[in-house]
Amino acid sequence: MSRQLLAMALAPLLGLFILGIGNGFLATVITLRLDAAGESPVVIGWVSSAYFIGLALGAMLNDRLLLRIGHIRAYGSFASLVAVTVLLQGLVAEPWAWFALRLIGGWATVGVYLVIESWLLASGDARVRGRLLALYMISLYAAGVLGQLLLGVTEAMGGAASFMVIGMLASLSVLPMAMIPRVSPLIEKAEPLSPLRLITLTPTGVMGSFGSGLAVAAVYSLLPLYLQRTGLPVDRIGQMMAVVVLGAMLLQYPVGRWSDRHDRQLVLILIGAFCTLISAAVLWLPMTSWILAGLLFLLGGGVFSLYPVAVGHAADRAPAGALVRMSQGLLLINAIGSALSPPLVSPVMSLMGDAGLFWAFGFLGLFLVVFFGWRRSVRPAPVPVAPFSPSTPMSAAGAELAVTQELVQGALEHEHVEDLSGAVPEVAVAEPLVGPPAPDEAHIAYYDDEQTPEEAALGNISRP
User: Fold this and answer.
1) 144 in a structural domain
2) Is the Cβ–Cβ distance between 211 and 306 less than 8 Å?
3) Where is the Major facilitator superfamily (MFS) profile domain (predicted)?
């Protein structure tokens, strides 16, 4: 990766890291404050759900503003709006007001993510995009870990201190983006596929994205409530939440590499079963703080790995040219699942007690295991027609005109007949074609559209 590319990616990643520190513990602060005010889990669930509803709306609408005003000004607008909504929450403590502010805050936050992701995707080519996106996820999760560790410090200050710190961080995140050169990458608008089209195309990808939204939103919104009601102080709650995000950060790459080497449907089945086992362990094992921290670390690694593996599976089944639209559609499905999670899970906690959160995790994992297993039986992983084997280097024309013993014998006989007739023989010399064929030769040569100019020049790729 060149220094120029790193320099171009540094500003958006630094801005995301600064904003992510505050955004990482904002959901925890809101849950703890509402619970301390005596609000029911249902009310807490709806306020938390407002943020994810805003995410879903922003995933559909924010690209229009980005296309109109560009990356840098769009980032400044979205980050400033995040700061305003957070500071207003420190002034007004009514649940209905927090619902509206969280809705607007979610809409603005997904706009920030859209700016950063599109900036990184447009900055580099396919050879470095994976590394750029890896840096993006590491920055996001590292900021979340640091933010959760700051929870105890800011809450100890009392009053609106937590909201003031988060608002200041959101405002400061604009500086790296505003101080870079005015050259920013272009973004092309791509409409997402409809949910019905996505379900037809990749049911496993859709269900994996939806289930991931349900689980991740429950972790951020309701796990702090569970931890507080078990008697943990605020600083310990922040540490436990940091452990969850740390598990997501450290285990995501090994799980992703594992899914690259095996059938992703099988990996999804095992992730669902793993989350179910971890939930059962939390419910039935005798708990100490260290055991709980270890289980939450593993739960974070499993829950946060669902979405990338599901998207990878969907990309394996997607037709050519539909990857961008499919990705946006799955992001919308994930946001819908996140919006529905708190209203669905919080009543379970009201009926079954605080442990109902892990009952919900367990049933969700079990459902995903059954669904993914059924889909794998209906549509198993594709098997290659033939294993890859290297072939003798030749040009595209050479691949078409494969020389056999019969052709050689026929050519010799033809030359012998011409010599007997007294005609001057004409020798046809086949030379490798290194450029496009002439119009009258286009019907005899096969060209691979995926062949790079370098490969065409070397003439070292042959595909039947």
Assistant:
1) yes
2) yes
3) 8-377
Percent of the residues in the chain that have a pLDDT greater than 90, as a whole number: 19
Residue 170 has φ and ψ, to the nearest 5°, of -60, -40
Residues 151 and 258 in one domain: no
Tokens linked to 27: 């959901």
The candidate with the shortest Cα–Cα distance to 246, out of 109, 166, 143, is 143
Residue found under tokens 């400033």: 80
The first and second tokens of residue 248, run together, are 């997501």
Answer yes or no: is 430 within a domain. Answer: yes
Confidence of residue 318 (pLDDT cuts 50, 70, 90): low
pLDDT tens, position by position, 4-38 = 666 667 888 899 899 999 888 888 888 888 888 88
Q: How confident is the model at residue 451 (pLDDT cuts 50, 70, 90)?
A: very low
Which two tokens mark 306? 């669902």
Cα-trace Rg, the chain: 28
Q: Report the CATH number at residue 300.
A: 1.20.1250.20
Mean pLDDT for the stretch of residues 299-314: 85
CB 206 within 8 A of CB 372: no
User: For residue 78, what are the contacts with CB-CB under 8 A and spacing of at least 6?
Assistant: 62, 108, 109, 111, 112, 115
190-204, 295-309, 372-386: which range is least confident on average?
372-386
Q: Are residues 356 and 229 in contact, defined by beta-carbon separation less than 8 angstroms? A: no
- Amino acid 165: pLDDT: 92
Rounded to the nearest 10°, the torsion over CA 333, 337, 339, 344 is 160
Question: Do 362 and 218 belong to one domain?
Answer: yes
E runs forming strands in 186-344: none
Q: Are 52 and 9 members of one domain?
A: yes
Whether the CB-CB separation of 126 and 134 falls below 8 Å is answered with no
Q: How many residues does the chain have?
A: 464
Q: Answer yes or no: is pLDDT of 206 > 80.
A: yes
pLDDT, averaged across the chain: 76
8 Å CB contact between 325 and 193? yes
User: How many domains does the chain contain in total?
Assistant: 3
13 and 156 together in one domain: yes
Question: Quick one: 121 and 5 in the same domain?
Answer: yes
| Amino acid code (one letter) for 27 | A
Highest mean predicted confidence (pLDDT) among 14-23, 321-330, 443-452: 14-23
| 8 Å CB contact between 111 and 78 | yes
Quote the CA–CA distance of 41 and 342 in Å, as a whole number.
9
Between CA 218 and CA 363 the distance in angstroms is 13
Domain enclosing residue 422, as ranges: 396-458
Per-residue model confidence (pLDDT) at position 418: 45
Asked if residues 180 and 315 have their Cβ atoms less than 8 Å apart, the reply is no
